[in-house]
Structures are given as C-alpha cells and as structure tokens.
Amino acid sequence: MKISIINRHYLSIEDEYLITQIKTYLILNSHILIDNILESDYIILFTNRISLKDEKNDISFIEKYINKKIIVFGLIKNWFIHKKYRNIIPIFLWDEYLLDNFFYINRKISTVNSIDINNLKNNLDWTFIINISRWCLHNCSYCFFKQIIWNPKSKSIESIIKEFRYALNNWKKYILLSSDDPSSYWVDQWVNFILLLKEIFKIKWNYILNISFIHPSFFIKYGRDFLKLLTVNNNIKELLIPLQSIKPSILKEMKRFYNIELIMDYIMKIRQLWIIVKTHFIVLYPSESYEDFISYIKYLKYFDEVTFNPYFIRKWIYQYNNYEFNTELNKRKIKILLMLHWRYPTKIFLENNFKDLFKNKI
How many Å apart are CA 171 and CA 128, to the nearest integer? Predict the structure, then answer.
C-alpha cells in the first residue's frame, strides 16, 4: 500500500526515533512511503497534542482529508469518537504494536514471501519501543508537559511483559523502555520500576535493553537497588540520564532537586559496568554565565554521548516570551557548540534545527 506519514508538531528526539521505527517497519513489509497525500491509500497522522493549537491543527487536517483513510497515532482525545470521524482509526501511543499488526496483515504477500526470512532474523537491528508510562511527578520549570492536566499513567507489568515477548517473538533484539520518567512508574500501579525490571530479567533471551529519560532523582531512592540489578544482569546496554544542568543554582531554578555530586557518583559506577550513559544539557539558560557553560564542556568526558538543547526552544512552547537569546554571549556559546559538534560528531549532538535556527544569528 501507499502510505503518507504526516507530522504537524514539534518533535522530541524520542518522537523522531519512534517515527523512524514505524517507517522502517512499513518498508520491511513492502509498503511504499509517499509524500503525495492524495495518492496514498492510508495516512498516518502522528500527534502529540501538546497544546490546544496543535489539537485544532489536527482537526483541520482531518476535516480536509475526511474521505481518506486516516490512522491517528499518538496522544489522542475523545473527539475521535465523533460520528463524522468514523473513517479514522485511532491508535494510542502506548499501543504502537497495534500499528505494526495492522500493516503486517495488510502487507503485499507476494513481495514479503520473496524476503529471506532467516537473513532478516539475523540482521534486523532496529529498536522496538515500549512506552511503560506517561507524564511524571516532577515540575521542571521549562517543561511543557505540566500544562497537561493528567496524572502519571502507567501500564501494568503484565501488559509490558506481553509487549516485550511480542517484540522478541518478532525478532526485535533491541528494546527501548520509554517513559517521561521511569521513577514515576508506580503511581497508579502500586509497584516501582525496580520490580518491573526484575520481571523483565526473568525472560531469558538474547536481547539488548535500553532505558530512556531516567530522572536523576531516581537514584536518590533506587540507586543502590538499580546498581545491584545492573551487576547481575548484562542485558542493559544504554541509559539516558538527562542532567540538564550541573550548577545547583540553575537546577534550583529548573525545580530539579538533587545533589549533582551524588548522581555523578552513580553514573561513574554505572560506566564501570561498560554501560553506555547519555545525558542532556539545557544551555543558554537566562542565568547561565560563561563559566557555567564551560563547566558543561568539562563534564563531557564522563559521558558517552551528550545532547545540548537550547533553552529558547522551550519558550516557544511554554511561557518565556521575554527571554532575549540573541546576545553576544549566547552567540559565543553557540559557536563553541557548533565547533564541538563538528569535531566530535558521534559524541556531541545538538537538538534538531539548532544550526538552522541560529544560521542568521551568528
């Protein structure tokens, strides 16, 4: 089938990762990705419904192509059950495996049969994402998620294990446990992230497990238990721990309350286990001095991969309309970041469109 994938929202790195996974799966099942919406058999509308404006944009798009077959995938709302939207197939972000099932059933059988299945089993290395929870218990000052009036929602352990086995049975060796914050996995399930990992590790299989967006405060409560699990199990290969800053005063302004020295101690112990550790830093913060900025660079040696996210992007989504980022000091910082990214392209990353946003500012 001919399929168009449409996104009309700001994308996080995780969102782009997920869309890439979907595209890969479609191609593997012999579907054709096209840009021309009018010629497509199906439209996949990816939505993250961050704001009312985003929601209105989605509705206007659907009404424009109301006669087309549309799969709305992502953070969806109740207006999809309206009678005039009967042609829409809603698939919630947590149920991405249903999207896989739909396009597997509707694949071109004759083409798929020509694929060397054994070779596919040995070489299929793209990542299967399992969303274990949404939202978090924290209240970071720059975050747009806190605008959404939802409490943290977690999948049951049984549901996650079912998806995990589904991934393994479909030859997906690399699995990413994704959430806005794993430490918030317990609010509505009366369990915690450590118990979930223990259940996953009972599955004896050759897989590689990556975990994203572990809030540093997780280590204050579960650090010792987590390290103990890592020492007895070698399936976890990659962790993303977004520090966002290393200066206590900036962390306080961000409403991220943890001792950076304690967190770094845990990170060093984790790296000794040959686990890849990644982090994010928010730069160009209003109270960030040049010395603060340089201190981030000094911390690069403690991580395998570092992504720098410019603070001003958040202001477009949230409330910081008076922040002036186009200053000589910020221009100087940006030049240093671009130089680092050019010199260490596999270690230093900049948020998407970073260079484009500043190409006329430097």
Answer: 10
Q: How confident is the model at residue 49 (pLDDT cuts 50, 70, 90)?
A: low
* Tokens (6 digits) for 278: 């990644």
Rounded to an integer, what distance in angstroms lies between the CA atom of residue 182 and that of residue 133?
A: 7
Contact 4, 45 (CB under 8 A): no
Distance CA(234)–CA(237), nearest Å, equals 7
Residue whose C-alpha is closest to residue 100's, from 130, 122, 79? 130
Looking at this protein, which amino acid is placed at residue 361? K
Rounded to a whole number of angstroms, the CA Rg of the chain reads 22
| Residue listed under structure tokens 């202001």 | 315
Element (H, E) at 3: strand 2-7
The residues with which 44 forms a beta bridge, in sequence order, are: 5, 71
Spell out the domains of the chain, with CATH numbers in brackets.
2-112 (3.40.50)
**Look-up: residue for tokens 């943290």?**
152
- Its pTM stands at 0.70
Tell me the CB-side half-sphere exposure of residue 298, using CA atoms within 13 A: 9
Q: For residue 235, what are its two tokens?
A: 């399936």
pLDDT of 11 higher than 60: no
> For the range 12-20, what are the long-range contacts, defined as Cβ-Cβ under 8 Å and sequence gap of 24 or more?
13/307, 13/351, 13/352, 14/129, 14/178, 14/212, 14/213, 15/46, 15/48, 16/352, 17/127, 17/129, 17/176, 18/96, 18/129, 19/46, 20/126
Please choose, from the candidates 130, 58, 54, 62, the residue with its C-alpha nearest in 3D space to the C-alpha of residue 316. 54
CB neighbourhood size of 136 (10 A): 21
